[in-house]
Amino acid sequence: MDQSENQSVLNDTLSTTTMSQSVIQKHAHGAIVRIRLENFMTYKEVELYPGPRLNVIIGPNGSGKSSIVCAICLGLAGHPRVIGRAGNIGDYIKTGNDKGMIEIELFNAEKGSNWIVNRTLHAQNANKWTLNGKPTTEAAIKDLMKKLHIQVDNLCQFLPQEKVAEFTNMSKCDLLENTEKCVGGEELYLLHKSLKTLGQETRNLESDLNEALNQATSCRQVLRHLEPDVQAIQGRKDLEAKIVEYTQCKHFHDYQEKALEHEKITKMFDSVKNKVNEVHLRLKPLQDQIKKFKTEFDKAQTSYRSKNKLTKEINAISEQSDDLIEKIRDELRHKKEEEKRRIELCKDVQQQISLLEEEFHSINIDSQDQDELQAEWNKLEIERKKLTEQQTQMSTKHQQINDELRRIQQDMQIKQRELNHITNVQETRLAKLQHQNMDAWKAVKWLRQNKMLFQKTVYEPMILSLNVSDPNMMKYVEFIIPKRDLLAMFIFEDTDDMELFIKECHEKQKLVVHGSAIPRMSLEDFRREAAPINDLSRYGMFQYVLDTIQGPDAILRYLCQTIKIHTLPIANDSAMTHIDTITKDKRIRRFFVKNFCYTLSISYYTNETSTTNIHVQKEKYLTDSVSHDRKQQIEHEHMQLKSRSDELHKSQQTYEKEQNNLARQLDEIKTRKMAITDRRNAKAKLERKIEEKKHTLTSYMKKQIDMAKEEKLAYEKEMKIHEDKMHKLNVQVKELENFNQKCSQLSIESGRVALARQQHSIADATLETHKEELIQLKEQILNAKKRMEASESLTRLAAQKIAKAMNKTVSSDDILLSNKFVQEFRTKFADLPSNLADLESEIMNFNAQLSCQGTIKDDVIRLYQQEKTNLVQIENRIHDLENKIKQGQITADTSKTNWLNQVNRMIDEINEKFVDLFNTMGCKGEICLDIPDSSKDFEKYGVNIKVQFRDGEKLHEMSEFLQSGGEKSVSVMLYMIALQSMTICPFRCVDEINQGMDPTNERRVFELLVKHSSDKANSQYFLLSPKLLPNLKYSRKIKLLFVCNGDVNIKSQEWNVSKYIERRRALAINQTN
After folding, report:
1. Cβ neighbours for 554, distance < 8 A, ≥ 6 positions apart
2. 135 — phi, psi (to 5°)?
3. Would you put residue 681 in left (φ > 0), alpha (ψ -120 to 50) or beta?
4. pTM higher than 0.70, yes or no?
5. Which of 30, 451, 511, 757 could disulfide-link to 986, CB 3.0 to 4.6 Å?
């Protein structure tokens, strides 16, 4: 077996007949018969068989006692929060394994086999459930637990080590609820819950009723206030009704006048329209005659237009022919000019060739000149190569500078980003604080805004003040500092400042934060308390936790005083080989190594040293820690890089100037070399130019135009055009001769055309006379039509106005009202004045009376009716609420009586046992029902525990201020014993509740627990403790389960308890002899 693993060995030390007793002593229905664990927390593999009554599980701290409690909770479908440890299922798997297993066998007192609940845990927080070997769900397991009355979330039944303090601080109301669940059963708890719900509903209804009554009173007051205005408005409405009636009558008389006027205008329009029709009848014969004359005249005009057309066509043929001839002649002139330009270009090129040949013959370069030019060219080439080499070297250096500049800029950016990160650490830390503890965040914000109120320095929570330079040390610092101190502890240099801060945060802002004054000892005094780290280096310890932290001196002194960081060393892996030696060194009580915190404790009874280790979780809050030394180093490196960058920029500018100078020198050499080359190649160059000119002359000669041939072609084209022209003219002349013959016949008819024209003129004059008369009539009819349309519009408008006033419907196209409406209106308005002036006078009189009444808001009537409707609705609601409250009170009174009777009986019975138990202890105790001021506040009912541990004192309610931790543990334990005989749960579990008790009380509590748990009527009991007092009295119904840890252990199944007891007895007899 691996030395780092803890293997539990559980033994029955009381009797060799354990197995036979387990058969005789029957477990309660639902009690735990067997527990088997694999790879669960500290256990690799273990199996234990609890007894039916009291089971005392004993083992050193860290050996795995509480792991059994965790297994019972998780294995019976409890939530991890019930345990108060890790929240993820995967965290309960033994380190280094992917899965773990919990198997719990529950006793079945009814027909059938026991229930075997198996839960397999996976590292990914997944679960696999089986019941009696068959797959099932967590919900089904919870239903089974409910059926068996197993409540692992009830602290009165299941009290893990981490929840002991929570039980002692449990409110009276919560204690009553848990007691009801544990003793009274689900029915009593649900009855209490229904009463609380009913009480809350009743209070809500009463609140609604009071609100409704207030609303009804308010509505009545508003109605009384509005009634005078409503009466005034009614009188105003009467006047308005008369105004409306007289206005309607006025509109009717106005309509009648408009209708009479419209009738007159219509008759006049019809008369003018008849005259227009008579004129049209006289004009028609004249228009027909004029139309006939115009037709004959148009025929003559058409004949004359045909002649003009023929003439135009003849002229067009002549013009087209002339254009074609002119185009041919233009082309010929263009070719003559082109040939002339070609001849001139040829002469010019010949002259250029002559000049170039003369220059060619004049050039005479001898070999000596050639040698001099070659020597000068070679000299320039050597100088060019030298300058080129310098330029290459300069470019290389310049590129190196650019590369170094880019690298430095990148390094500067990296340094700047790191500096920005350091600058933002405080903001990041503050955001984490806001997420983790909103109260502390609000307190920090208030402190920063009100620093002027404090006399001396106030240090913010450690998450904002501490830095750990070495990331590997962060987890140790976070582990050792309590979360409360890390997130919500403010350190004060002045106690008055602390009182001011606590009063503001606690009383005014209701913030849960903490404060502490600075210890008096200096940091150096604390350091002197610790042994020099060099003395511990032989154990592999290289520094204290204090050495890893950077922060204000005041906070470090507080940490030294509270958690002794100046005496808590950190070791490397080699410390594991020195564990035995370390345990003997009295200076070391705790130390860190790898991912564990080792704690060394000395037994109060045996004076032996035991070792426990706790896994150190990964850091969570100080992950953004930054070393101030690192920040200064980065700033220094950034300044060095900037200085180097400036030097390189200057060098870069110098190299650029030198490169420009070299480039200029190379350009001069290039120009001189080109001049030498031109001189050496001048004759060859001229020879090439002469050849080029001759080639150009040859190309010009090839482009020569034959002008005689071009003139002949142009003449032939002109003759062809003349022939086509003559042919077309002959055709047109023949058509013209035929037309002239027709014109001779038309001249005979010209006399009649002239006569027709004269008659047309006479008829046209007569037509003009009648047209003038028609225009005058049209103007008259147009004016009459406009008057008629205006009259129609006014009459229609008047009709619609009276119809709208009388709420009648008429078509928008109708001008006059129907006789039915007219007769109806005459009858209605018979008693009213018939004169419009009298009607308007009456209307003005009514308006004057109306204006004298003053102005009242238009929405008064609406508000009055609305308030009246609201009042009716509110009164109905009040009636409904009163009925509901009355019915609820009847139901509550019935249920309350039933519930109080059961609760009082339960409390009385618990009190009777509780009093007896305290009397046995030589103290006094009392349990009573805490009844609120209002009997309807069912959520305020609770259990009041009163105790007296010392003579001369009175019974006091149990609180965190009056009783010590041990006294509270005794009270809780006796309360649970008092519940034991009344409970309906199959088992109960308490983890290390005897811690803090003095030996006398611990002995008495244990004897009481043994006595009451041995009773057959009581359920199974698990009591976990790291130690027991010597010479305790045991019952044969108790089962002691020892959890042993060590380097070598055998499996629990291989441990033979009977042989072990026989051997111990034999050894005892031998020692006696």
Report:
1. 457, 459, 491, 493, 518
2. -60, 140
3. alpha
4. no
5. 30
- Torsion, CA 396, CA 397, CA 398, CA 404, rounded to 10: 110
CA distance 91 to 614: 13
Residue 271: is its pLDDT beyond 70?
yes
Residue with tokens 């519940």: 979
Whether 756 contacts 293, CB under 8 Å: yes
19 touches 59 (CB < 8 A):
no
Q: Residue 283: its pLDDT value, please?
A: 62
DSSP class of residue 387 equals H
4 has pLDDT over 60: no
Smallest CA-to-CA distance from 509 within 522, 520, 497, 500 is with 500
pLDDT computed for residue 6 by the predictor: 35
**Secondary structure (3-state) at 606:** coil
Instruction: Tell me the pLDDT tens digit for each residue of 336-361.
Output: 788 788 888 888 878 888 887 777 77
Higher pLDDT pick, 568 / 252: 568
How far is Cα 73 from Cα 83, in angstroms, rounded to an integer?
7
Token reading at 436: 């983790």
Cross-strand partners of 991: 1024
Contacts of 449 (CB under 8 A, 6+ apart): none
d(Cα 136, Cα 1022) in Å, to the nearest integer? 28
Q: E strands along 64-122, which residues?
A: 99-106, 115-122
Burial 778-815 (b: 16+ CB within 10 A, else e): eebbeebeebbeebbebbbebbbbbbebeebebeeeeb
Name residues whose C-beta falls within 8 Å of residue 313's C-beta, 6 or more positions apart in sequence.
Answer: 732
C-alpha separations of 860 from 224, 234, 873, 874 in Å: 12, 11, 20, 20
Taking the C-alpha atoms of residue 106 and residue 36, their distance in angstroms, rounded to an integer, is 12
Q: Coil, strand or helix: which one is 130?
A: strand
Beta pairing, strands 54-58 & 1039-1042: parallel
**Residue 185 contacts by C-beta under 8 Å, 6 or more apart in sequence?**
149, 984
User: DSSP assignment of 215-227, as one string?
Assistant: HHHHHHHHHHHHH
Which whole-number Å values give the CA distances from 687 to 363, 681, 868, in the listed order? Answer: 11, 10, 125
What is the tens place of the pLDDT at every residue in 16-61? 333 333 334 578 888 899 999 998 888 888 888 898 888 888 887 7
pLDDT over 70, % of the chain: 74
Q: Which of 934, 779, 936 is nearest to 276 (CA)?
A: 779
Nearest Cα to Cα of residue 460 among 438, 436, 434, 486: 486
> What is the pLDDT, as a whole number, of residue 5?
37
Give the pairing of strands 43-48 and 32-40: antiparallel
Rounded to whole angstroms, how far apart are CA atoms 456 and 468? Answer: 26
Distance CA 543, CA 533 (A): 6
Q: Would you say 929 and 907 are in contact if contact means Cβ atoms under 8 Å apart?
A: yes
Question: Can you tell me the mean pLDDT for 821-838?
Answer: 71
Contacts of residue 598, defined as CB under 8 A and 6 or more positions apart, other chains included, come to 579, 590, 591, 592, 611, 612, 613
Question: Where are the strands (E) in 910-966, listed by range?
Answer: 924-930, 942-948, 956-957
Q: Please tell me whether residue 232 adopts helix, strand or coil conformation.
A: helix
Contact 929/903 with Cβ under 8 angstroms?
A: yes
Q: Which carries the bigger pLDDT value, residue 373 or residue 358?
A: 358
Spell out the alpha helix ranges (H) of 450-531: 462-465, 474-480, 483-488, 495-502, 523-529
| Cα radius of gyration rounded to whole Å, the chain | 62
What is d(CA 320, CA 314) in angstroms, rounded to the nearest whole number?
A: 10
Q: Count Cα atoms within 13 angstroms, Cβ side, for 53.
A: 23
Residue 280 is predicted with a pLDDT of 67
* CB-based contacts of 176, cutoff 8 Å, min separation 6: 192, 903, 929, 930, 941, 942, 943
